[in-house]
Amino acid sequence: MNPLNFSSVAKPQLIITQDYFYHLIESIYGQICWQIRLDYGQELCLEIGKKIPYHSQILSGEFKGEWQLGTRASDWAIYKKRHPTIRNSDLLIKSSDNEKLIKQEIAKINKQKIQKIEIVDLYYLFDFGLHSLIIPEQKTQDDLPLWELFMPDRQILEVYPNLEFQLHSQDEIA
């Protein structure tokens, strides 16, 4: 018997359609993004909706969003207007920019309501009214999702290249 031979339990996942994707996310519309931060590797983390206290003693006094949106191993950009293809839209910041500049600029999304999430051409568009977060369709390393959304019902929606969506429970073994 090899003591280093680990067995893994496959995580049950549901591959979903684009229509079901829109159905899953519709209740996020109108929710306020109350915190956006830059994480490891220029990944964005957005806390949206109700503030929920953590149950851990270590995180006492800290809160998470009812909805948590995180970019993964993907490029992203934030624009000042509603859509980057509209004439005269202004690029505010992108994931490859200087970290200090990113931290200054992403704060502009704080306190804005999420109006809509759309798939436009080969982009995922997160409309915050005055600003839009754009995540382009792209190849990722290590089969990571482009972005993921932790939802109030303890489900995780993962979005992969080629418009592939997976849904699974936060309670399942990873």
Task: Please name the defining characteristics of this protein.
174 residues, mainly beta, eight-stranded antiparallel beta sheet, five-stranded antiparallel beta sheet, disordered N terminus
Describe the structure.
- By secondary structure, the chain is mainly beta.
- It is built from 2 helices and 13 strands; from the N terminus they run βαβββββαβββββββ.
- β2 and β3 (43-53) form a beta hairpin.
- The radius of gyration is 17 Å and the shape is globular.
SSE layout and pairing:
Blueprint: E1 14-16, H1 18-25, E2 32-39, E3 43-53, E4 63-71, E5 77-79, E6 91-94, H2 99-106, E7 112-113, E8 116-120, E9 123-127, E10 132-136, E11 147-150, E12 155-160, E13 164-169
Antiparallel strand pairs: 1-13, 2-3, 2-7, 3-4, 4-11, 5-6, 5-10, 8-9, 9-10, 11-12, 12-13
Shape: globular
Distance between the termini: 24 Å
Portion in strands: 35-45%
Oligomer: single chain
Counting H and I runs of at least 4 residues, what is the number of helices?
A: 2
Helical proportion, percent range: under 10%
Radius of gyration: 17 Å
SSE order, one letter for each helix or strand: EHEEEEEHEEEEEEE
Largest sheet: 8 strands, antiparallel
